[in-house]
Design goal:
- The structure holds two protein chains of two kinds.
- Helices cover about 30% and strands about 25% of the residues of chain A.
- By secondary structure, chain A is α+β, with helices and mostly antiparallel strands.
- Chain A has two domains: about 15-60, no CATH class; about 100-255, no CATH class.
- In chain A, strands 1-2-3-4-7 form a five-stranded antiparallel β-sheet, with no helix packed on it. Chain A has a four-stranded antiparallel β-sheet with strand order 6-5-8-9, with helices on one face.
- In chain A, a hairpin with a 5-residue loop joins strand 5 and strand 6 (about 200-205).
- In chain A, helix 1 (about 15-25) crosses helix 3 (about 40-60).
- The radius of gyration of chain A is 21 Å and the shape is globular.
- By secondary structure, chain B is mostly helical.
- Chain B has two domains: about 5-100, RNA polymerase sigma factor, region 2, helix turn helix motif (Rna Polymerase Sigma Factor, Chain: A, Orthogonal Bundle); about 115-190, Arc Repressor Mutant, subunit A (Orthogonal Bundle).
- The interface between A and B is large, with 56 and 74 residues.
């Protein structure tokens, strides 16, 4: 269960630990360790969800209190601030000159490519994932002139099977992500981002072995803006603050023919 | 989507909330706003019980919705209903803030959580599940029951509870674990 071989503190009573996690009574170090384990252990997640469900009538019974009307504006501003300052406080941002702000899609690509370099250095190109990455973008022709076009990004790693297919289906209004051979490093998640020219990266979600179908985000409009996709290596469950923190292992543009 | 017996609120409301969360996951800020309108008062009420300091509670409510914005994609309707998921985000954030501020809870802000549980008639809580919890909490030894309720509703830590009951922290841990086990056994009894 743990990386080190020593049993984790919840080993003897995982359900009790899950219950105390929900109560909030685990000591801080145990609480943090348990939260990390939740990201990778489905059994613990189920135990926690069961306790949340058992106890939630207590919370639901508490009287509602209407917050001050201006609180929403603060949430809007906090989200904007996080988007605008993409990577500012992150070590990966050191590779980017201060003048190359997050406001330019092209600079983002450079930044992401530099992250690829770091990833390679960091791993010594030991994994197939990092070795010889290449990206092909194919734009599927619409089956008929009337049908809205589909856009397809096929991500490959150098001659082997495609690792990832990103399909933007304007007719169905969905982005489909199909992971064919993307290898997720242990204890990490792969997260897919799209980057409109002039904007900060937006997460499309985690890349899993299954096909994910997501609604097309309002600002993802192939053909009207130049959109880039990138896949980064993130902590389990995805980038904690909604912006990429890890090395990009794939990136490529989705362009209209 | 969910077993009918475990739902909070009507199935329709649950579906609406789940769809809103899914749309938020797609990056739709308007959906987050709609989710806020629908659930902020409930979540704020819960946060305020854990963080009586109004500024801290308001801060936390904002952080909760930023977190919902960031983590909406991780919500899995198969794993549970949407409102418990939102409540869990709010409670965990509030408890983290409480611990971070090292605010100590040596006085109880409110008595009568159990009475409130029994009296709730606003339709928010699923009746069968609420009654079962009420019944099973009632069967737990009083100190253990109070520890569970104070921890869950008001964010009391083991240390806070140890000070209140004048017992070692390890005893409180034992009470909590035993209380949880009794609760689970009772709730799962046929």
């Amino acid at each position: 269960m743990s990386e080190s071989g020593t049993p984790p503190f919840w080993h003897e009573d995982p359900d009790g630990a899950a219950g105390e996690y929900v109560l909030g009574t685990l000591p801080p170090d145990e609480r943090a360790a348990f939260a990390r384990a939740l990201e990778r252990e489905a059994d613990l997640r189920r135990a926690v969800a069961a306790w949340e469900a058992r106890l939630v009538p207590l919370a639901a019974a508490m009287p509602a209190v209407t917050p001050r009307p201006d609180l929403w504006a603060g949430i809007d501003a906090k989200i904007d601030a996080k988007i605008d300052t993409t990577s500012d406080s992150r070590p990966v941002a050191e590779a980017v000159p201060a003048s190359a702000g997050a406001d330019d899609g092209g600079d983002q690509i450079i930044r992401l490519e530099r992250r690829i370099g770091r990833w390679r250095m960091a791993t010594g190109a030991a994994t197939a994932l990092a070795a010889g990455l290449a990206l092909w973008i194919a734009v599927a022709r619409p089956p008929s002139l009337d049908a809205p076009p589909q856009y397809l990004a096929v991500v490959d790693r150098g001659g082997a099977l495609p690792a990832l297919i990103v399909r933007v289906d304007l007719k169905a209004g969905v982005v489909q992500v199909r992971s064919l051979a993307a290898e997720t490093p242990p204890d990490r998640s792969l997260e897919l981002w799209y980057i409109n020219a002039g904007s900060a990266p937006q997460s499309l979600g985690l890349v899993s072995a299954e096909t994910a179908s997501l609604p097309i985000p309002a600002d993802l409009r192939p053909g009207t803006v130049s959109t880039t996709f990138a896949v980064t290596v993130e902590p389990p469950g995805g980038a904690p603050e909604g912006k990429p923190t890890g090395p990009a292992i794939y990136s490529g543009r989705l362009i209209r023919d | 989507m969910n077993r009918g017996d475990g739902a909070l609120g009507s199935a329709q409301r649950e579906e609406d909330l789940a769809r809103l969360i899914e749309t938020v996951a797609g990056g739709e800020r308007a959906a987050l706003r709609a989710l806020y309108e629908a659930t902020a008062p409930k979540l704020f009420g819960i946060i305020l019980r854990i963080l009586p300091d109004r500024n801290a509670a308001e801060d936390t409510l904002q952080e909760v919705f930023v977190r919902i914005w960031q983590r909406a994609g991780s919500y899995d309707p198969r794993a549970g209903a949407p409102l418990p998921w939102l409540i869990a985000v709010a409670r965990h954030r509030a408890i983290d803030r409480l611990r971070q501020d090292r605010a100590s809870r040596l006085t109880q802000t409110e008595d009568g959580w159990l009475e409130r549980l029994a009296d709730t008639k606003d339709g928010e809580a699923d009746l069968a599940r609420r009654d079962a919890l009420d019944h099973c909490l009632d069967r737990i030894d009083p100190p253990q029951r109070h520890c569970l309720v104070l921890a869950y509703c008001e964010g009391w830590s083991r240390e806070d509870l140890a000070a209140r009951y004048d017992r070692p922290v390890n005893t409180i841990k034992t009470w909590l674990r035993r209380g949880l086990l009794s609760l689970r056994t009772c709730l799962e009894a046929p």
